[in-house]
Amino acid sequence: MTRRVALVGGGAARFGVRAATWAELVQEAGAALFRGVPNLRAADVDSLFVGAAEPERFAFQSHVAPLAAELIGVRPSKILQRTELACASGQSAIRSAYAAIAAGLCDVAVCLGVEKMNLPSMAEANTSMACVMDRPWDGPHGATAPPFFAMVAQRHMLEFGTTEEMLAAVSEKNHRFANANPIAQFYEKSFSREKLLKLPWIAPPLRLGDCSSMTDGAAAVLLVAEERARDYTDTPAWVLGTGQYSGFHNLAHAGPLTEWTGLTRAAREALRSARLEIGDVDFAELHDCFTISEIVEYEALGLCPRGEGGRFALDGQGDRGGSIVINPRGGLLGCGHPLGATGIAQALEVYEQFASRVDPRRQVPDPEVALVHNLSGSANVHSVMIYGRTAPGAS
Amino acid sequence: MSGPSRRRPPARSSARTEAPAPRVEAGPTAAERPRPRPSAEPSRPFLLDFFPLESAAATRLARFFERLRAGRLSTTRCPVEGELHWPPRVACPVCHREALDWVDLPETGTVYAFSPVLAGAPLGMESDLPFIVGLVDLDGVPLRLFGRIVGVEWPALAIGARVRVEPFAVDADRVFYRFRFVSNPPGPITPSSEQA
C-alpha cells in the first residue's frame, strides 16, 4: 500500500534575463521556499530532487544536486539526486519525489528546479538547446526547437486551416495571465493580438511571440508524506495521479506531426490513476513552449476534437469564462521557460491556485482538480500529473 | 579531398549563392585514398561541433560515412526483422542482433514539412541564416528523414516539393548529407506563400 503525498508549498525566484548566476538562482529559490513554507526547518528535509536540464552546458557545472543542497542549506539523509528530462526536468523531480515518498523511502522532500540559460553568446545558448535533439544526426542540420514546432504549425495549418490569428490568441491569453504573475518574465508587459502578429519571424509560421523565451529562473516546492502535510499547510495539494509516455527520439520517428498520441496516452494513465476524467479538471498548466503546442495539446487531451484546437483558442475556450482555464500562471510563453524550473513553477501555481492565493486577475474560481503537463524535446516525451484539493480516497 | 569550408562568407541567401556541392565520387577505399592532412586542431572544441566524428577510430558506423563519401546515403537493416533503421545502428532495437546489413537508400524524396530558420542558429550556423530544414519522405521506403533543404528560398518552397539527397563536405575530413530542391508540386504554393 503506497502512501498519499501532498505538495505543501514553495517559492520561486523571479524568471527573466537575470543578472544572476546558476548558483545564485538556486539560493533565491531556496530562500523563497523557506519563506513560502514558514514551518519548514532545514533539518526536516530528508531528500532533495534537483530538476536541471543542462547545467553542464549552461553553467559548466556537473554534480549539481549536492551543490544545490549546500546552497539552500539542507543535508539530505535519504535521497539526493538530479533529474534530467530536458524541458520536463522539473516535473521529473516531482514525479521522482512522489514515487519515493509514496514508497516510504523518504518523508520530506524538496524539489528544486533551475536553469540559467542566458549566456553572453546567444549562439552558444542555442547550441545547448540543440543538444536536446539527436545531436549527431539531427543536430548538424540545425535542429533546434523552433523549426520543429514550426513544422507542426505548418502541418496544422495545411491539414486543418489553423491561422496565425489562432496562434496569437494563445499567446495573448498566456501573456495576459503572466501580466498578473510577479515572477513571470513578462510581468506587467501586455501583448495584443495585433502587436503579436507584427513581431518578427523566428521560424515561419512562428513569430517571436509564438515562442517561449530563453529564461533564467528557479523554483522549489515541498512534497511530504500524508502524515506530515498538516505540519506545513492547511491547504495541501494532493498528488492524485501521474502518467508518462516516450514515443521516439530521432526526428525520423516523429510520425504525424499534428497528432500527439504520447500526450493522449500519458494523460489517460494519469487520469486513470487519479480515477478522474478530463472533464473533472478545473484548470491545466500545459506546456506551451510554442503557441502551436498548446493548440495540439487541447486536441490530444480531448478538450476539443482533432483539428479544432485553433478554433478552441480563438473562441476563448481555454480562457477564464471558457470550458477550462489553461495556463493561468501565464504559461511558458508568459513566464519564460527556464527548463528545469518550469515544471516546479507549474506545480507551485497549482498549490497557490488551490489556496486561492494568486492575483484575482488569474485566480481560477474554487478549483478542485488541476492537470500539469510537460513535453520534452520534440514533443517526443509527455509527462502529466494530476493534483486535487481533496486527499485521494477521502470524501 | 577538399571542399568548401563550413565557414562560408556571409551571404544574403546561402541557398542562392553557395557553390555547387562537391561531387563525391565513388573511388578508392579509405585505405587507398591519400590521407587528408590531419587537422592538428579541430575548428572548434568537440563539444561545440555538431558534426560527428566519422573515422573508424571514433565510431563503429564509419562505413556510413565511407559510403556517403562515395555519394551513397545508406543505413543498416536487420536481416531477421527486415526493418530499415534510422539512424544506422550497431544493434537491432527489436531482436538486439548485432550483425546487420548495409543498404543504400533512395536518392529522392518528397517534402512532408519544412521550416525556414530566420534566427536562433547554433554556433557555426549563424552565417547559414536564413536556412531551411525539413522532413523528407524518401521514395519507396518507409523512412522520413530530417535535414537541410538547399537550392531554394523559403517563400518559394512548398510541402510536396521534390528533393534529392546530396552529400557534402563538412571539412577536409568529414562529409554529411542534405537535400537539394528539385521542383515544387503543381498548383499554388501553400501554405507559406501568403507569408512571402
Beta-strand content bin of chain A: 15-25%
Coarse morphology of chain A: globular
Helix coverage percent of residues of chain A?
25-40%
* Structure class of chain A: alpha/beta
Distance between the termini of chain B: 39 Å
Helix content of chain B: under 10%
Distance between the termini of chain A: 19 Å
Structure report:
The complex is a heterodimer of chains A (395) and B (196). In chain A, 36% of the residues lie in helices and 18% in strands. By secondary structure, chain A is an alpha/beta fold. Chain A folds into 2 domains: 5-120 and 214-232, Peroxisomal Thiolase, Chain A, domain 1 (3-Layer(aba) Sandwich); 140-211 and 239-388, 3-Layer(aba) Sandwich (Peroxisomal Thiolase, Chain A, domain 1), CATH 3.40.47. In chain A, strand 11 and strand 12 form a beta hairpin. In chain A, helix 4 (89-102) packs across helix 14 (339-354). Chain A is globular. Chain B has one domain. Chain B has 2 helices and 7 strands; from the N terminus they run ααβββββββ. Chain B has helices spanning 14-17, 62-69; strands at 74-77, 101-104, 108-117, 131-138, 144-150, 162-169, 175-183. In chain B, a hairpin with a 5-residue loop joins strand 4 and strand 5 (144-150). Residues 1-40 and 191-196 of chain B have low confidence and may be disordered. Chain A binds chain B through residues 121-124, 126-127, 129-130, 134-144, 146-148, 150-152, 154-155, 157-158, 200-205, 250-254, 257, and chain B through 48, 50-52, 86-87, 112-123, 125-126, 128, 131, 133-135, 143-148, 154, 159, 170, 176, 178, 190-192, 195.
